[in-house]
Amino acid sequence: MSVVTITKENFASEVLQSSKPVLLDFWATWCGPCRMLSPIVDQVAEERPDVKVGKVNVDEQPELAGQFGVMSIPTLLVFKDGKLVNQSVGSRPKAGVLALLDV
Questions:
Q1: In the chain, where are the structural domains located?
Q2: 25 bridge partner residues
């Protein structure tokens, strides 16, 4: 499954109303660790069709970043049934990203 670009306009429909768990990657183009994490997030999107994967550019969507208290990037958030169930700050290996989904 491809990665969905999440904006404040589609957040409710893509994340809160999703029937699947959602992994959100908060990132920015100027962030080195974000660029390291991005291909891992893309791999998870391809390998886990049971999970919706979205990316939020914090420079373009400051309201969403503020809504979830994202102070450092990359930040990963996991939602299930419209509720935030797990989160992580900083780059991590693929196993670490997959572990976030096991809640």
A1: 4-101
A2: 55, 76
For 66, the token pair is: 């503020």
State both tokens at 35: 């660029």
Class of domain 4-101: alpha beta
List per-residue pLDDT tens for the chain, 103 residues long: 789 999 999 999 999 999 999 999 999 999 999 999 999 999 999 999 999 999 999 999 999 999 999 999 999 999 999 999 999 999 999 999 999 998 7
Instruction: Give yes or no: 31 in active site.
Output: yes
Q: Which two tokens stand for residue 89?
A: 């700050």
Per the residue annotation, which of 4, 6, 31, 101 is the catalytic one?
31
Considering the candidates 4, 6, 15, 34, report the single residue annotated as catalytic: 34
- Is 34 part of the annotated catalytic residue set? yes
